[in-house]
Amino acid sequence: MEEQLKKIENEAQQExxxxxxxxxxxxxxxxxxxxKSMVTRLFTKIPVLEREEKAKIGKALNLLKQRINxxxxxxxxxxxxxxxxxxxxxxxxKINRGIKHxxxxxxxxxxxxxxxxxxxxxxxxxxxxxxxxxxxxNIPLEHxxxxxxxxxxxxLPVSDYGGENKGGGKYLLRSHTSPSQIRVMEKRKPPLAxxxxxxxxxxxxxxxxxxxxxxxxxxxxxxxxxxxSHLKGxxxxxxKSFFSEDVKxxxxxxxxxxxEPSAEVxxxxxICKGRGCSVCSQSGWVEVLGCGMIHPxxxxxxxxxxxxxxxxxxGMGVDRMAMLxxxxxxIRLFYENDLRFLEQFYEV
Amino acid sequence: xxxxxxxxxEFIDLDDSSQSIASRLTMAGMEIGDFEQAGGDWIFDAExxxxxYDWLSMIGIAKExxxxxxxxxxxxxxxLIKEPALKEIDIIIENKNDCPVYLVRLIKGVKVEESPSWxxxxxxxxxxxxxxxxxxxxxxxxxxxxxxxHAFDFDKIEGNIYVRRAKKGEKFLGLDDKERSLNxxxxxxxxxxxxxxxxxxxxxxxxxxxENTKNVLLEAAVFSPLAIRCSRRDAVLETESSYRxxxxxxxDYLELASAEAADKIISLSKGKFCGYKSKGESVxxxxxxxxxxxxxxxxxxxxxxxxxxxxxxxxNLEFTITKASQEGIEVExxxxxxxxxxEVDVYEEVVRVYGYEKIPLxxxxxxxxxxxxxxxxxxxxxxxxxxxxxxxxxxxxITGEKFLEKLNxxxxxxxxxxxxxxxxxxxxxxxxxxxxxxxxNLNQKSGCLRLFEIADIYxxxxxxxxxxxxxxxxxxxxxxxxxxxxxxLKGIVEEILKFANVENYAFKEKGQINFTNALExxxxxxxxxxxxxxDKDKKEGFDLKEDLYFTQINLEALCRQKxxxxxxxxxxxxxxxxxxxxxIEKKKKFLDIEATIKKEAQPYFKKIEILDTYExxxxxxxxxxxxxxxxxxxxxxxxxxxxxxxxxxxxxxILTKIEGITLR
Lengths: 348, 664
What we know:
- The structure holds two protein chains of two kinds.
- By secondary structure, chain A is of the alpha+beta class.
- Chain A has two domains: 2-84; 102-342, BirA Bifunctional Protein, domain 2 (2-Layer Sandwich), CATH 3.30.930.
- Chain A has helices at 2-18, 22-33, 38-45, 51-84, 102-116, 130-133, 178-187, 228-242, 296-301, 318-326, 332-336, 339-342; strands at residues 120-121, 127-129, 171-173, 192-201, 213-223, 249-256, 259-268, 285-294, 310-317.
- In chain A, the strands form two sheets. Chain A has a seven-stranded mixed β-sheet with strand order 1-4-5-9-8-7-6, with helices on both faces. Chain A has a two-stranded antiparallel ribbon with strand order 2-3.
- In chain A, a hairpin with a 2-residue loop joins strand 6 and strand 7 (259-268).
- The radius of gyration of chain A is 41 Å and the shape is rod-shaped.
- Chain B is of the alpha+beta class.
- Chain B has five domains: 2-69, Phenylalanyl-tRNA Synthetase, Chain B, domain 1 (2-Layer Sandwich); 91-280, 3-Layer(bba) Sandwich (Phenylalanyl-tRNA Synthetase, Chain B, domain 3); 290-358, Phenylalanyl-tRNA Synthetase, Chain B, domain 1 (2-Layer Sandwich), CATH 3.30.56.10; 374-561, Bira Bifunctional Protein, Domain 2 (BirA Bifunctional Protein, domain 2, 2-Layer Sandwich), CATH 3.30.930.10; 576-663, Ferrodoxin-fold anticodon-binding domain (Alpha-Beta Plaits), CATH 3.30.70.380.
- Chain B contains 19 helices and 30 strands.
- In chain B, 41% of the residues are buried.
- The chains are: A alpha+beta, B alpha+beta.
- Chains A and B meet through helix 5, strand 1, strand 4, strand 5 and helix 8 of A and strand 2, helix 6, helix 9, helix 11 and helix 12 of B.
C-alpha cells in the first residue's frame, strides 16, 4: 500500500512538472484528486481497514493529497508569473500636467535674477497718462523719437495729475513700463533699485515679429555712486545667468531720450557662437536690450537732485528674450495659446 | 540710410577697409546693419538715431569718420552768388513758425538731359533714383549737405509763391501720381492758383520739371520739424526730404546747398543764373558753453580717461575748448551739434569715441527694502494653479467694443486711435480672451480644456484714488467639457480660497448675466467673483463646440483679504461613519441639510460625503434620493458605537421633522 502511494506521488509529481498549461493542470487535478481518482478510491477503502491501518493509511493518504495539491499550486505559480508579464512597450498613460505660459516663466525668471541682485519688483499699471509715459521721461510730445513709442489713446477725461506744471495729460495704454519707475521715483527717495515687468502696448500691425501687446521688463538703480560700469556689471551678470555662462556682451552707443549716455546691448549669437549665421545676419551679435545712465532731466522731473544722485536704467522685451532663448520664430504663437505650443514647455 | 563710400571719399582720405569703417562707426553709435560692394564703390546701410540729424549728410558722416580716425575732412565752400535779385515773383510766408526761411534761385535756358554716369552712380548707391540732370543735382546736394532742395518748372508757376497751410479739401497730385485731399495740418507751397508742393515732403505734378523745361526755380528752405511731421503723418507720405526736415536741418548749410545745386545745374544743363530771392531769416542758435569736471566725468562712467585724451576726442569732434583749469573744462560744441545741451551729452561724446568696451564690469552693492508685492502673490498663485493641473494662457487685453456689447458689458474704455475695429476697446472682463482661446483650441480638436489667465481688466468709473477708471488684476478659470463640470470648477475655486486662506468664504446662488447656474463667491460681505456655465445661446453664438465653465475672481480683493496660514492641530483618534438615506424635495437646498447635520453632530462632526444621488424609478415626483455618509470623530478620545449612535439618531430625528425630507 505504501509503495502504491509512493508511486502515485512520483507519477503525479512528474506529470505535474511537465504540465505546460492551466488546462493540463486541471486535467491532472481531476486525474489525481478527482472523484474517480486513485486517491479518492483509496479513501473509500479506509472504512473496511483494520483500526491501526485505518489511522496510518488515512494519514498517508491525506499527506499524499496535500503533496499533490502542493505540486499543483507550485506549478500554477509558474503560469501566473508568466501570465502577469505584460507588454511594457505600450506607451505610458497621458499625465494631465499644469503648465505656466512660457512668457510668464521667462518673465518670472528674469525678475528672479534681478531680485537676487538686490532689485525690488514693482508692477505699476497699464493705463497711464502722457506725463508719466512721455514728458517725465524727456520724450517731447511731437518728435521723431516718439515714433517708436506710438501709443493707443483712451476715451477718458484728461488727467489732472501732477501738481504744478505737471499736467498729467491724456490717458493712454503705456508703451513701456518706464512710467512705473517714474511713479516709484516720485514717491520714494534713493537708494532705489527697481525692476518693472508688465504688459505694454504699441499700435504695431501684427506680424511674425510685431504685436500690439507684448511684455517688457525695465529696471533702474539710483544712488550716490552708481555709474556706467555698474550698468555693465549688472547686465553682464544677468545675461550670464539668463543665457549662458559663456555669453559675451557688446555695448554700442545709441540714443534714447531718457538716458545719456545710452547704449544698445548685443549678446554673442548663441546659435553660431559668434561666427555669423542667418539669425544674427552674419554679424555674430544679436541685439537684446537698451540701456544707459538716467538723463538728469528725468531725475529732476521726479524731484531727485542730479548733483547728489545718479543712476542707470535698462529695458528689454520679454517676448524677444523668450524667442531668442527658445528659438521661437513667431511672436503670435505666444498669444494664440495653441495647446500644442504651450505644452512643449516644462519650464517652471 | 544708405551712403556710398566713394561719396564720403570726396571729403576725406580713407585707406581703411570697409569692415573696419563699419565696425568703427557701429561702435561709435552709427549702427551699420549691412555693407556691400557695388562696382568699385561700397554701399553702407546705417541706422541714424533721431538725435543725429547731422549724420543725414555725407559731410556729417565724413566729419564723424574724421573725428574717429583722427583725420580732417576737407569741405570746399561753394561761391555764394546772390546777384542779380529775382524780380519776376515774390515770396510770401504766411507764418514764420512754419517756415523761418525760404529762398529761391532762378536758372534760365536749361537743357534737361540724363545726368553723367558718376552722378547717377552717387545717387543710386545712396538709394535714390536718377531722374535727370536738374533733379539729380538737387538730390546730390541734399545728400551732400543734408538740406533737401526742390526744382520747380518756373514757367508752370502762376504768380507769386506762398508758403501757407492748405485749405480744407484742397487737392494735391504728387510726383508719386497719387492725389491727396489736404487740410490745415498740411503746409504747402502754392502759387496764385494752385498747390505746387507739399512743403518739405514732395513736389506737385503740376510744376514738375520735365524734358521740355526751359527755366527752373530752385527752392531751398527750412520748415518747422513739427509742421512737417504733422503734415506727412496726415498725408501718410514719408520721403527723404520729410525725413530730414522732421529731424531739423542745419541753417548754416542752407545757402551752401542751394548755391552748389545751382552751380551743378548750370554746369550740367548749360543754363544761366538769372536771379536770387530770400524771405525770412536763418535762426542761428546761440552758441552755448558747457562746463564739466573731469572727475565727475570719470565718476559718472566708472573709468579714468586722461585729460589729454578727453581734450583730443572733443577737439576731433570740433568742440572748442574755451577753458581748462583745476576746476574743470569749458567747451563750446560745434554749431552743427544742436543736440549737445549739457554736461552728460559731452560725457557721451567722450565715451562713445573712447570706447564703451573700455568701461569695466563692476557689480554695485545694492541694498533696498525687501518687499513682497503683488507680483509675488501672482507668482505663487500661478504655481498653485499649475499644481492643480491647469494650463496658463495669455490673451490680448484689447478687444472689440462689439464683442463686449454682445456680453452686455458696460463702462467699457475705448481706444481713440485703434488699428482695427475689432481691437478698439479694453476688456472689462476676461471672458473675451477665454472665448477666443477656447474656440481656437476646440476647433484644433483639443477638448476638455483646463485653463487659467491672470491679467488686468479695465472699467470706467471712480477708483479709490479718485482716478476716472479702474484697473483690476483678475483671475479667470476656463474649463470646457461635454459633461457637467460646474462642481469641478467650484472645487478649484474652493482650493483657491483655501490657498488665500480667506476666513469666511461662501458661495451664493445669484443670477449672472451671460451665465446659467451661476454662483457668487463671497468672503464676509465682499464679492470676490463668480462662477457659472456660459449660456447655451452664447455658446452657440460664439460657436463653441463644448460648454464653457468660467470663473472670474478679483485678485485685488482676494489679495487684500489673504490671511497667513496658521497650523491647526488635528485628531489622531479613529473616526466612525454612519450612512443615512433620504428622499428630498427638489426645492430644498443641500447647504441647509448639511448645516443642520453639522450643527447637530457637534462636537463630533468630521465631514459629510455624498455616496449617491438618484432620480427616476420609484422616486416620488419632485423628489430625489440622497445617501450621505457622516463621519464622526472626537479630538480627545476614541468614540464608542453607542456615543456615535446617540448623535446619529438625534440627527435622524431632526431630519425627519423637516418638511420635504423623508428618511428611508
